[in-house]
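Morning!

This is the sequence you dropped in the shared folder:
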Amino acid sequence: ANCCPLTAVGTGRGVLDAARLIRAGALLPDADGRVLVQQYQRHGDEIARLLAAHSGLRDDVDRIVRAAVTHVGEPGRPGAGVELLAAVAHALAVVEVHGSESLKGDARAAVARLPALLARAPRLDTTAVRAVLEAREQ
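The structure's back. Tokens below.
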């Protein structure tokens, strides 16, 4: 069974709650989003190993989740999607060097789906999650 990479590496509660909000509110209602969730689950153990081995990748995940919260919480905010894509690109570079061929292929496919998925993402109320994320920063 594959583990949840975010819980395996001890991701903070705020980031974990934010990731769950994004999964439930933006990814699972969308066909491409469901594919991303399935890929994440399929490669959970490998992603957890990569996160444990590469602290920069853990930072990327934090930036990805925070940017995704901003994107769905403030869809009209200039640059929110760009921040998300920049963090994803850096994480993809780690996967390209250290990931299995299967993970690399799925990661490339995920990145190809991401712009359309971002364009369709619903606006979500991220107030509670943002408060937790901001409290963790202090």
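Headline: The chain has a mean pLDDT of 85.

More detail when I'm at my desk.
O.
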